[in-house]
Amino acid sequence: MVTGKLMKKLLFQFDTDSHPSVFDTVVGYDGGADHVIGHGKLSPENVTGLVEGAIFTRAPKDKKNTAIFIGGSDMLAGQQLLAAVQRCFFPGFQVSVMLDSNGSNTTAAAAVAKLATSGTLVGKKAVVLAGTGPVGQRAAAMLALEGADVSLTARKMARAVDACNNMKHRFGVDLTPVEAYDNEARTQAIADAHIVLATGAAGVELLTVEQWQNNSTLKMIADANATPPLGIGGTDMMDKGELRHGKIIWGAIGFGSLKLALHRACIARLFEDNKQVLDAENIFALAKEMA
Which of 49, 92, 96, 112 suits a disulfide with 270, CB 3.0-4.6 Å? Predict the structure, then answer.
């Protein structure tokens, strides 16, 4: 019979996309899982049997060795899947679970935590450029929870409004939607900002260096894009709080080391007991400790 000491740490990767993320699989192993078992194209309608398999197979003292990681490119789908997984739990029959759709929680938490090490966020005006994706929405919410006055831009106002409404519903924060179709509009959006965080698509430049370097209000910049051209021209993906044109800069790799360390730490925490639920709030709290 397998003893608790020898029992393997199993991480079940529940992905809302067709194919489970290779990135998340690698970090799952690096975070301490002995085996990572991926399942793709999951939804609230088809996940029950998998959850039951996870919660019914091991004795209470051994359930901490089974955990679930929820990923995929669609954050809303991930939130819905997390809720469905939790509905399957009942006293004595649950395992730890983590939500990080598209790296949204860990990447956003790392970026905002590093910005917080560079200066106070309370009362500052922050603009999240191209913020309708998973990372942008979660980062905007975290900035707001830290006391910043946050605007979120999108090429179309309807998408910005939807994103702000989603974060209001999830976190109770008020974000300001801004339509910014092109670089000129984004330049206007950051005119009186203290903090700018770019979370646009890979390889899309949202601002040139000329559009931000002489902004006297701007104090901190972070760019989540590591694929050239970068989201913010004149920055470097390796920037770790570097001073450029009088602004403190964090590049995608610069805060990415914290993102990876945070992701691994969260995976390790899943196996501490069987009652962990790691979502934005506690992942962000851990990021601030680690930063």
Answer: 96
